[in-house]
Structures are given as structure tokens and as C-alpha cells.
Design a protein that fits this description.
Blueprint: E1 5-10, H1 13-20, H2 30-40, E2 45-50, H3 57-68, H4 81-94
Parallel strand pairs: 1-2
């Protein structure tokens, strides 16, 4: 993918805890957790981080944008303008003052 180091942010504390845990996951989402861990192993460094919803509006905007389409969408470099504006705001939220 060309991304040796990634940070995956999520607003579900329980999912992030499952992803960073060293123990086997036995929950109903175990196959998703297993897949995510496997994908993460393809990067030199992958960190899973909890971010509250106020700092993760871009994910919400992408979910809304994805639900409005009739076909699957994949955004690799640029996303829809509505999502890019929110992502820029999220980026400022994470920067130190």
C-alpha cells in the first residue's frame, strides 16, 4: 500500500481494546478483530487508538457518504468534498495548540 506506518482511530473503546489486546478474542466480532489484526501485520508499525466521536467526525461523514451510494465505494487518495472538509477539521482537532 505504500504506508509503512499507520494509526487507526476508532470511537468504540471496546473494539480498540480488543484490537490491542494480546489475548484471543471470543466475542461475536472475533472474525473482524482477527482480520484487522492480520491486515495490521502487513505494516511496519500499526497503532490502534481510541478517539472520541468529537474528534472523529470524518469517519461519521464517510459512513453517511457511503450509505447514500448504490454501489461500493473505495477512497484511496481523495474522498468526497464533504468528507475532506470534515477530515481537515479533525486533523486540526488532533494538533497541539
Amino acid at each position: 500500500m505504500g504506508l509503512p506506518e499507520v494509526v487507526v482511530e476508532g470511537d468504540s473503546r471496546s473494539i480498540i481494546q480488543k484490537l490491542v489486546s494480546q489475548t484471543a478474542d471470543l466475542s461475536s466480532v472475533r472474525s473482524i478483530i482477527s482480520d484487522a489484526r492480520q491486515l495490521a501485520s502487513n505494516f511496519r508499525h500499526c497503532r490502534f487508538t481510541f478517539v472520541g466521536r468529537t474528534g472523529n467526525e470524518a469517519a461519521h461523514a464517510m459512513a453517511i457518504e457511503g450509505r447514500t451510494g448504490l454501489v461500493d465505494c473505495f477512497w484511496v487518495e481523495d474522498g468526497p468534498p464533504s468528507v475532506l472538509a470534515v477530515a481537515a477539521s479533525d486533523r486540526r482537532f488532533g494538533e497541539p495548540p
